[in-house]
């Protein structure tokens, strides 16, 4: 089958052929059936915020200029964007809240969770200005839980403590001047919904500032909080070798896939898969093979070395292998089609969260208090289901790549410390200053059916590293780049420019790898974009400049989720040029588009959005930006 218009991933390509043969509908078929997509929606010009609507604005200026209430194009676009970004923030904040609840359980004796990383516990406590000396871990964890919950119970006008503790001072001052410092995440999200109802804010500029505030809610009550607490609970990632792509599934093993975003259940699934190996063998399998999809996959990869099955757009194809005995999902990015696809095979989908149920799936009511019992039950059901597998319908593509993951900031600094123990960032910064490393780009975010699966991530990143730009990555972008073979030492030789390769080789050898570091560093899940933020803060503070002066950029080449917009808004708020490879639904508001992509955003925040739908042009746009920043720094 010629799959080139759908994906660049050969494993996905093979399974698209099988999907057709098995007559199973996939996301690509549904994308086709949706064409042409609504022009008003694509431009963001449709409003359904009250029951007088829906109202649509004619983008050509010939039909209606105002909705029934009088809202114009910019207002409708700005309101829609604020709702999208608030929804993205809500997803991350809800995830982080679950992490606080988990840490709370870990402060109780004999519970299902414990503090696995006391060093991180102390580091986070110190950041929060807690007295660390002489305290035991559980007491310290309790104080951290109180501060974290405190932000959600803050009924004063003071900004969120987690933000003050983790954001650079220069940024806090900038945000304060703009009046966008969030106080209490729940309150801010509620306010955004209120602000965008019928007959409320009519000023697009004010709505954009509220959008910036939601970006900060996302970053500091979502991403950063989740990463910090999950590291405390499950360990801070360290470099780990594993594999990526559907070829990691095995014919003679029970295959269990973890999919979604949170590690609280998946960490337990990892534990119980080991404990129940014997039962798998009794069922006729050689053992249990776990693999991950989306950010739950990234979490288990970073900390446990569990291989990646695939990323967002190919989640249905994993089932179409006919070899998946259980797919366990938690929250976010779980296609509602999964149970229909699974019904064509023996695969069981297990939903586990009260807010994520799916007709046709089996719901196992996961709770933190009963984490072990539930994880055991799920793994056991996966093992039982192995017996029902129809061997004649199995096709596992013989496609997988080796990869290195686990590059937390702590791990990167640790590797650099082998070169300069006193000043670990010095070797990195020296090589940025002398131009061996031109700059750095963080590629993040999703797949999107509007883009040939993985193609934008891979094409753009190859062009960047060829021009000596170091790439750090998270989310489904990281999974695309891993599958493309960009996270192995050999990728430095094969794809990196000469000077970047020299640095990667020196650091890799210095760190005892006896090989270059990969030119693309996997920094984790989408909430782990906080790690990229921390790396930028550390570099900026070492150079004594604000983040907005650094020769760096961000990119979400194939973004689909509202979360990607809220993360992008935060990146712009940090002062980072942020590329989007798929046009966001805002172009119908000319003023809004100009503010987000032009001088206004840049003068207020230091960053702005940059939309470019061609991967090579986008790479060069980012390189030009990096060169301009270098020039301004005089390097
Ligand atoms: Fe979802 Fe995080 Fe996007 Fe992938 S990258 S499609 S959000 S899994 Ni977050
Ligand atoms: Fe139409 Fe205004 Fe109602 Fe939106 S809020 S649907 S623009 S009347």
TrEMBL record:
Positions of [Ni-4Fe-4S] cluster binding: 261, 295, 333, 446, 476, 526
Broad enzyme group: oxidoreductase
Pfam families for this protein: Prismane (PF03063)
CDD domains reported for this sequence: CODH
This enzyme's EC code(s): 1.2.7.4
Claim: Zinc is one of the keywords in the record: no
Record keywords: 4Fe-4S, Iron, Iron-sulfur, Metal-binding, Nickel, Oxidoreductase
Residue positions binding [4Fe-4S] cluster 1: 38, 46
GO molecular function, one term: hydroxylamine reductase activity
Cofactor dependency: [4Fe-4S] cluster
Superkingdom of origin organism: Bacteria
GO BP terms: generation of precursor metabolites and energy; response to hydrogen peroxide
Residues annotated for [4Fe-4S] cluster 2 binding in this entry: 47, 50, 55, 69
InterPro entries referenced in this protein's UniProt entry, alphabetically: CO_DH_a-bundle (IPR016101), CODH (IPR010047), HCP/CODH (IPR004137), Prismane-like_a/b-sand (IPR016099), Prismane-like_sf (IPR011254)
Reactions this protein catalyses: CO + 2 oxidized [2Fe-2S]-[ferredoxin] + H2O = 2 reduced [2Fe-2S]-[ferredoxin] + CO2 + 2 H(+)
Name of the molecule in the record: Carbon monoxide dehydrogenase
Species this protein is from: Formimonas warabiya
């Amino acid at each position: 089958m010629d799959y080139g218009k759908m994906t660049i991933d050969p494993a996905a390509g093979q399974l698209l052929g099988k999907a057709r043969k098995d007559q199973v509908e996939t996301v690509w078929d549904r994308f086709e059936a949706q064409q042409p997509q609504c022009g008003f929606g694509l431009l963001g010009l449709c409003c359904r915020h009250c029951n007088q609507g829906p109202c649509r604005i004619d983008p050509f200026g010939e039909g209606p200029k105002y909705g029934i209430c009088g809202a114009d194009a910019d207002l409708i676009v700005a309101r829609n964007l604020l709702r999208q970004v608030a929804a993205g923030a809500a997803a991350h904040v809800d995830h982080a809240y679950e992490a606080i609840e988990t840490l709370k359980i870990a402060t109780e004796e004999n519970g299902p969770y414990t503090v696995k990383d006391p060093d991180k516990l102390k580091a986070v406590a110190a950041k929060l200005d807690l007295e660390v000396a002489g305290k035991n871990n559980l007491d310290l964890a309790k104080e951290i839980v109180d501060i974290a919950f405190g932000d959600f119970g803050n009924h004063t006008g003071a900004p969120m403590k987690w933000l003050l503790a983790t954001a650079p001072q220069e940024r806090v001052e900038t945000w304060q001047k703009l009046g966008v410092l969030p106080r209490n995440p729940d309150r801010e999200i509620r306010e955004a919904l209120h602000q965008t109802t019928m007959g409320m804010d009519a000023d697009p500029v004010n709505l954009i500032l509220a959008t910036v505030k939601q970006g900060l809610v996302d970053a500091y009550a979502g991403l950063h909080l989740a990463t910090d607490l999950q590291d405390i609970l499950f360990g801070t990632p360290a470099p780990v070798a594993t594999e990526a792509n559907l070829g990691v599934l095995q014919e003679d093993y029970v295959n269990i896939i973890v999919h979604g975003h949170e590690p609280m259940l998946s960490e337990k699934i990892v534990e119980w898969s080991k404990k129940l190996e014997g039962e798998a063998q009794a069922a006729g399998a050689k053992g249990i093979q776990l693999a991950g999809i989306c950010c739950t996959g990234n979490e288990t990869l970073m900390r446990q070395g569990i291989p990646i099955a695939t990323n967002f757009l190919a989640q249905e194809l994993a089932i179409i292998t006919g070899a998946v005995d259980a797919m366990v999902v938690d929250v976010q990015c779980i296609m509602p089609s999964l149970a229909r696809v699974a019904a064509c095979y023996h695969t069981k989908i297990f939903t586990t969260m009260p807010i994520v149920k799916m007709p046709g799936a089996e719901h196992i009511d996961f709770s933190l208090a009963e984490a072990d019992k539930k994880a055991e039950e799920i793994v056991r059901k996966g093992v039982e289901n192995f017996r029902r597998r129809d061997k004649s319908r199995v096709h596992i593509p013989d496609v997988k790549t080796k990869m290195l993951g686990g590059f937390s900031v702590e791990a990167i600094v640790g590797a650099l410390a082998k070169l300069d123990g006193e000043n670990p960032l010095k070797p990195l910064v020296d090589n940025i200053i002398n131009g061996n490393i031109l700059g750095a780009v963080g590629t993040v975010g999703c797949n999107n059916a509007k883009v040939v699966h993985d193609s934008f991530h891979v094409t753009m990143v190859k062009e960047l590293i060829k021009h000596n730009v170091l790439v750090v990555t998270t989310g489904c972008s990281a999974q695309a780049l891993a599958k493309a073979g960009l996270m192995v030492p050999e990728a430095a030789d094969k794809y990196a420019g000469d000077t970047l390769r020299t640095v990667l080789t020196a650091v890799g050898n210095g760190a005892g790898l006896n090989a270059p570091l990969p030119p693309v560093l996997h920094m984790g899940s989408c909430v782990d974009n906080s790690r990229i933020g921390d790396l930028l803060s550390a570099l900026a503070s070492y150079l004594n400049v604000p983040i907005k002066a650094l020769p760096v950029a961000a990119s979400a080449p194939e973004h689909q989720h509202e979360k990607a917009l809220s993360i992008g808004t935060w990146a712009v708020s940090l002062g980072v040029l942020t590329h989007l490879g798929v046009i966001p639904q805002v172009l119908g508001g000319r003023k809004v588009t100009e503010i987000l992509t032009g001088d206004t955003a840049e003068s207020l925040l230091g960053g702005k959005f940059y939309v470019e739908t061609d991967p090579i042009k986008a790479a060069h746009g980012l390189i030009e930006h990096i060169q301009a920043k270098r020039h301004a720094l005089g390097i």
